[in-house]
Design brief:
Elements: E1 33-38, E2 41-46, E3 59-63, E4 65-67, E5 71-75, E6 81-91, H1 95-100, E7 104-112, E8 121-128, E9 131-143, E10 146-153, H2 159-166, E11 167-168, H3 183-186, E12 194-197, H4 209-217, E13 221-228, E14 250-255, H5 256-264, E15 269-272, H6 274-288, H7 290-294, E16 299-300, H8 314-328, E17 332-337, E18 350-356, H9 363-372, H10 375-385, E19 396-400
Parallel strand pairs: 1-19, 3-13, 3-15, 4-12, 15-18, 16-17
Antiparallel strand pairs: 1-2, 5-6, 5-11, 6-7, 7-10, 8-9, 9-10, 13-14, 14-17, 18-19
Length: about 400
C-alpha cells in the first residue's frame, strides 16, 4: 500500500520570489495567462481562450460560495483595537440561518489583540438603513484554539446586514496589504451566490459572464456546488510529513440535481478550483460508507479515502446518496470534510482541473501533485520561467487527463 502518511513536505517546496506573487489582479479577469497541461504536454495561452481547450460535453463544477466581511474591528475607549475574525457559525450552525438572525448569533472566531479585551462586552456603533444600531460582542468559551463569540444587536437587522456593514472583506495574508475598495469586486467570482467563505475560490476569479456564455454555446454543462472556504486554507504545513498535519474542516452543500449531473457525466468532469475538487471527491467517499450517511452529522474525515476500497463503484456511491435524499425528502446533502488529497490518491470523479498556482509546501500543492504526478515540478518551473503571476490574484492553470467513456 502506498505510504501516504510519510510523504515528506520538503519534496513539495519550490522557490517563489516575492515579485512573482500578484498583489492585484489583471484589469480584465479573462486577460490572465493560462497554462495548459494535457497528459504531460504544456503550453501557454490567455484565459479568455480556455473554452477551446475544454472537451465537448464536459461538465464543469463551480463553487458558488461568496466571501463575507468576516473581519470586524472594535475600538475600545482606550484606543486599543480588537479584531474578531468570523470563521463559521455555531448557533445556529447553518450559515444561511445564522445570516437571517435578527437579535443574536454565536460564531467560532479568531481574535487579534485578545490581551487588551479584558471586559465582557465590546461595542461598535453602526448606521444601517438610517437606523443607529449597536453591535455587541461577548466572549464565550474557547474551542480548539479559537473563541466562541456571541454577537447581539438591536434594530431588527439581519446578521447578514450587520456583518456587511460592520466587517471588512478579508484578503489573503500573503498579499501583505490592507483590503481596498477594488477588492470588493475583484475578490468575488461573478457567479458567487451563497454567503459563507472567508477566502475566495480563486480559480473562479478568471471567469467572466462572456466566458460562461461560451461554455454554454459549446454544450459544456455547468453545475454549482457550495463549499464555504475556511481560514484553514492558508494554514501552513508545519510538520515534516503529511501525517503530522491536521486538515481543516469545511462545510459542503450539493444538490440532488448536481449529483444526477455527476452520475450522468462520470468520466467527463472538470472541477473549477481545489474547493470543487475536494467537494466532489468527498461526496464520492461519503456515499461509499453506509455509516456516514446514517449519522446525523455527515462527515468525511482526513484519511477516510485511504481506508476504503478505492475500486468501489462511483455510480453506486452517488446512487446511495440519491436514495438517501429521496428517503429523507431532502433536495440537497449537507456535510463536512477534512479530506486531504496527496500523491497516490485515486481521483474518483475529477478528470480535469482549473486552478491557480499555490504556495510551496501547502496542502493545495499536494493536491495538484496528486493529479499531475511529478509533472507538477515541470508545470511550476515553466510558469516561473514564462512570467506567470502566482497565488490568489495570479494566473490560471488547466489540467486535463483523457476523458473516460
Amino acid at each position: 500500500m502506498y505510504d501516504y502518511k510519510n510523504i515528506k513536505i520538503r519534496d513539495f517546496n519550490y522557490d517563489l520570489p516575492e515579485e512573482k506573487i500578484a498583489k492585484y489582479p489583471v484589469i480584465n479577469r479573462g486577460d490572465s495567462n493560462l497554462l495548459i497541461w494535457r497528459n504531460g504536454v504544456i503550453e501557454k495561452n490567455s484565459f479568455r481562450n480556455i473554452v477551446q481547450y475544454l472537451p465537448d460535453n464536459a461538465l464543469t463544477v463551480f463553487n458558488n460560495t461568496r466571501v463575507i466581511h468576516a473581519r470586524i474591528y472594535f475600538r475600545k475607549k482606550s484606543g486599543a483595537t480588537i479584531e474578531i475574525f468570523c470563521l463559521e457559525p455555531v448557533q445556529p450552525s447553518d450559515h444561511q440561518l445564522a445570516f437571517l438572525e435578527r437579535e443574536k448569533t454565536t460564531w467560532k472566531c479568531m481574535t487579534g489583540n485578545l490581551k487588551k479585551w479584558k471586559t465582557d462586552l465590546l461595542e461598535k456603533k453602526l448606521l444601517i438603513n438610517g437606523k443607529n444600531i449597536t453591535l455587541k460582542a461577548r466572549k464565550a468559551e474557547i474551542f480548539e484554539n479559537t473563541r466562541i463569540i456571541e454577537f447581539s444587536w438591536d434594530g431588527g437587522c439581519t446578521f447578514a446586514e450587520i456583518i456587511d456593514n460592520a466587517g471588512v472583506l478579508p484578503i489573503p495574508p500573503y498579499l501583505k496589504r490592507d483590503t481596498e475598495p477594488s477588492d470588493e469586486d475583484n475578490y468575488q467570482t461573478v457567479y458567487a451566490k451563497l454567503d459563507g467563505s472567508v477566502a475566495a475560490p480563486t480559480a473562479g476569479l478568471h471567469f467572466t459572464d462572456s466566458i460562461l456564455d461560451q461554455l454554454s454555446k459549446k454544450n459544456i454543462q455547468a453545475a454549482e456546488i457550495t463549499l464555504h472556504v475556511g481560514a484553514g486554507t492558508f494554514q501552513p504545513v508545519r510538520s515534516n510529513t503529511v501525517e503530522g498535519h491536521t486538515m481543516h474542516t469545511e462545510k459542503v452543500i450539493i444538490s440532488k440535481k448536481v449529483i444526477e449531473q455527476l452520475i450522468a457525466n462520470h468520466g467527463r468532469i472538470i472541477a473549477v478550483g481545489t474547493t470543487s475538487v475536494r467537494s466532489i471527491e468527498s461526496l464520492c467517499w461519503l456515499g461509499l460508507h453506509d455509516q456516514l450517511l446514517k449519522e446525523k452529522s455527515h462527515h468525511v474525515s482526513q484519511w477516510e479515502p485511504y481506508q476504503m476500497n478505492s475500486h468501489a463503484n462511483v455510480r453506486k456511491s452517488l446512487g446511495n446518496i440519491l436514495n438517501y435524499l429521496v428517503k429523507t425528502g431532502r433536495d440537497e446533502i449537507n456535510f463536512s470534510t477534512d479530506i486531504i488529497i496527496v500523491p497516490g490518491y485515486d481521483f474518483r470523479l475529477t478528470r480535469g482541473m482549473i486552478t491557480n498556482f499555490h504556495l510551496p509546501g501547502s496542502t493545495l500543492l499536494l493536491l495538484v501533485s496528486a493529479f499531475l504526478g511529478n509533472d507538477w515540478k515541470k508545470v511550476y518551473d515553466f510558469a516561473l520561467a514564462e512570467g506567470f503571476r502566482f497565488l490568489s490574484y495570479g494566473d490560471s492553470n488547466l489540467y486535463l487527463k483523457e476523458f473516460k467513456p
